[in-house]
Write a structure and sequence with these properties.
With 424 residues, this protein is of the alpha+beta class. The chain has 15 helices and 17 strands. The strands form four sheets. Strands 1, 2, 3, 4, 5, 8, 15, 16 and 17 form a nine-stranded mixed β-sheet that branches. A four-stranded mixed β-sheet has the order 10-13-9-14. Strands 6-7 form a two-stranded antiparallel ribbon. Helix 2 packs antiparallel against helix 12, helix 8 crosses helix 15 and helix 14 packs antiparallel against helix 15. The protein is globular and about 70 Å long.
Amino acid sequence: MTHSRDISRRRVLGMTGAAVLGAGVLAGCSSDDDGAEAAAEAPPDQYAGERVDGPTLVVWADSARVPAMVEASAAFTRDYRVNVRYQPLAFNDINANFQKAGPAGGGPDLLDGNIDWMGTLTRSGLLAPVELGTRAATFDSRALGGWTLDETLWGVPYAVESLAVFRNPAVVPEPVTSWQQFLELAPELTDQGVEYPLLMDAGNAYFFPGILTAFGGYVFGERNGQADVDDVGLDSEGGLAAGRFMEELVRNGWLRPGVTDDVAVSVFPENKGALHLTGPWMAARYAELGIEYVIDPLPAGPAGPGRPWLSARGFMVNRNSENLALARTFLTQYLAATEPMRTMARSLAQESSWLEARTGEDNPDIAALSEAGAEAEPIPSAPELATYWEAMGNALTSIVNQQQGSDDAMRGAARRMRNAIAES
């Protein structure tokens, strides 16, 4: 069994900024009762290091990650005489609240977020570009690529993650390296009483690109190194093949609807589950429950390796910040260095986007997840990605629940994406 430390269970991506309704804006960005109530219920602010007599940078950050960020930022306060005040929020509330506060000039100086937010925020004119200079060479190029739009860098990544297969070694002793191998193995597993040969949240569009690409499909094509939103590939030959593969899995009972991570941890100990396609957030949970697992890459398909999406968490700068120069200094001169990045990576138990911070990593789960994600590609940063989540999620739900043939479902998803993009 591999072991892991405190990997945060990241909620599924998909709220790219199209859904901005909900929580009130925190920290003085709204004076209404809802905002006051939200602020009152929020965790207390945390400062990095001792308070100093100097300016203050305000950072909206995922409450689960604030302690690691505080630890990594303490030296900045000491060396630059600048306070760094972290305001903890639920992760998706950061995006929603900033889209409400930002246009009016409110919000934090910096915000913690994911690359699939970036396209919508830049289109709205809410982010300031950043420049890393020679330090860019020390980052995972995929992470920087994900944070780049129109040849401009809009954030500084600090962690990367992608999907993997958690294998039950008592049921499947060796890695399943191809989907064809899985199709040959699955009947044997069911004959042995394995009820769930493959477990995954099959209706979740975030999980699909790792299968889609293995069959030659794609979400967007590529032009000049950027997503080509005029080239939607869900109904390409490879996209249709991926849909038919999902349909075959469901028809044979090898993939079931309604599977959650909770289902996986309940059936693995009883050897009723074989492979669990999921994210790094499950490593800590499996380890804490004492469940045996091995982390493998996603199986390859007829078009080659499956390429799941690479999620890169990072910091963005509010274009309307009154401390714009200080915010950029914090990101590009301080955080973009080995010790702060290593401190954060160790505290979060995640793979760092800073290559030198990966040296000497003593967490075997992170090493295995890194290997499993070697073929991962950055989530497209184009704002038009917002059209994918609902269209593909509905199509997958139809396929998995056998409500619609896969070809019709895939073609319908592609058509809805194209229509939405044309209207945007």
